[in-house]
Design a protein that fits this description.
This protein is an alpha/beta fold and about 400 residues long. The protein has two domains: about 15-260, Aspartate Aminotransferase, domain 2; about 260-390, Aspartate Aminotransferase, domain 1. Helices cover about 35% and strands about 15% of the residues. The protein contains 13 helices and twelve strands. It has helices at about 15-20, 50-55, 65-80, 90-100, 115-130, 170-175, 190-195, 230-240, 250-260, 260-280, 300-305, 320-330, 380-390; strands at about 85, 105-110, 130-135, 150-160, 185, 205-210, 225, 285-290, 310-315, 335, 345-350, 370. The strands form two sheets. A seven-stranded mixed β-sheet has the order 1-7-6-5-4-2-3, with helices on both faces. It has a five-stranded mixed β-sheet with strand order 8-9-12-11-10, covered by helices on one side. The radius of gyration is 22 Å and the shape is globular. Pathway: Amino-acid biosynthesis; L-methionine biosynthesis via de novo pathway; L-homocysteine from L-cystathionine: step 1/1.
């Protein structure tokens, strides 16, 4: 923070103020507002005693530097946890968090709507270490207790679900796990800690793909993991033992993105709701999957637990052939066809969850498309979608 002497108690700032002030110390860097990009591996010590006892603030580039520390500090304040570690991607954040809390012979409960690469971590990597995964219905709520085994050590959540946007009752699942040796984790990329703070409802590990809204400009890959006091030591040790580090340039870009997260996310939310409401009235659209819409099945949970929504949602089209859907997507001028999301640009991808679901059935009634609404004028986006929808030929 810019003007507080080191060691001073922090004021109870609002989130918008924290986004601007957290992790900054201009006095330390000759008055420069932003923490500089510090590149380096070797850190010199003045004496053998200092070298052997690690008395300095930094010991080796992989173990941290001012650029990385500034982002970790800022995110820890925003998340409200005991500490944050950074990883090279959102997926590496998921795998690192799971490896920090699981060991051979453990049982993991993984939500069935999880990001598909997360499922592969469970089915390919964790399985090799004799860690068994059970996928569960995202709508199970407190009923998850019936799936607990003596060796269940972790429950992984994602709210809302990747692509299909089911809302999980996170507080109910956390309450069910309370009092047991079960760690709770959540992928909170969609809402960010600005719109939902998992630690506030008792979640142990809060994970983000910082690639998305934290970076905000589609120019970096980054993962973040925030842990509470219960899990932070294990997380930090595992992170260090795996040799994970992020480039100082990427940490700098993410810290820069953090400063404008509030205003960007508010625009994404407003524009996405405008487009979603318009799509809900289109004759070609069967359903809009967006928990902030009152008609969405998960709206009550979203309204209870979340402070806002992001720019990502999905639509289910009325039955149409694949060539027809492809023509719709190919005709779009303002929506790029690409993976990821959270940047300034709008995106669209077709998807089919039925290819990987195992605990639930995906049968939406028509082709599904995920949209990310960027920072363009929503009227232009609607006009683009309108001309695209004309390409659809009902099946």
């Amino acid at each position: 923070m810019s003007r507080l002497p080191k060691g001073s108690p922090r004021p109870d700032y609002a989130p918008d103020t924290l986004l601007v002030t957290a992790g900054r110390d201009p006095q330390r860097f000759d008055g420069f507002v932003n923490v500089p990009i510090v590149r380096g591996s070797t850190v010199l010590s003045p004496t053998v005693h200092d070298l052997e006892h690690h008395t300095g603030r930094y010991s080796y580039g992989r173990r941290g530097n001012p650029s990385v520390e500034a982002l970790e500090t800022a995110l820890a304040e925003l998340e409200g946890g005991a500490g944050v570690v950074l990883t090279p991607s959102g997926l590496s954040a998921v795998s690192t968090a799971l490896l920090a809390v699981l060991q051979a012979g453990d049982h993991l409960l993984m939500v069935d709507t999880a990001y598909a690469p997360t499922r592969r971590v469970c089915n390919e990597v964790l399985r090799r270490f004799n860690i068994e995964t059970t996928f569960y219905d995202p709508l199970i709520g407190a009923g998850i207790a019936a799936l607990f085994r003596p060796n269940t050590r972790a429950v992984f959540m994602e709210a809302p679900g990747s692509q299909s946007f089911e809302m999980q009752d996170v507080p109910a699942i956390v309450a069910a796990a309370a009092g047991r040796e079960i760690v709770t984790l959540i992928d909170n990329t969609w809402a960010t800690p600005l719109y939902f703070r998992p630690h506030d409802v008792g979640v142990d590990l809060s994970i983000q793909a910082g690639t998305k809204y934290l970076g905000g400009h589609s120019d970096l890959n980054l993962g973040t993991i925030s842990a509470n006091e219960r899990c932070y030591r294990r997380l930090r040790t595992t992170h260090g033992d795996l040799g994970l580090t992020v480039a100082p340039e990427d940490a700098f870009l993410a810290a820069r993105g953090l400063r404008t997260l509030s205003v960007r996310l508010a625009r994404h939310q407003e524009s996405a709701l405008t487009v979603a409401r318009w799509l809900a009235g289109r004759p070609e659209v069967l359903r809009v999957l967006h928990p902030a819409l009152p008609e969405d099945p998960g709206h009550a949970i979203w309204a209870r637990d979340f402070k806002g929504a992001s720019g990502l949602f999905s639509i289910v089209l009325k039955p149409a052939s694949k060539p027809s859907v492809d023509a719709f997507l190919d005709s779009l001028a303002l929506f790029g066809l690409g993976y990821s999301w959270g940047g300034f640009e709008s995106l669209a991808i077709p998807f089919d969850c039925s290819t990987y679901r195992s605990a639930t059935k995906w049968a939406p009634g028509g082709p599904a498309v995920r949209l990310h609404i960027g920072l363009e004028d929503p009227a232009d986006l609607i006009a683009d979608l309108e001309q695209g929808l004309r390409q659809l030929v009902p099946a």
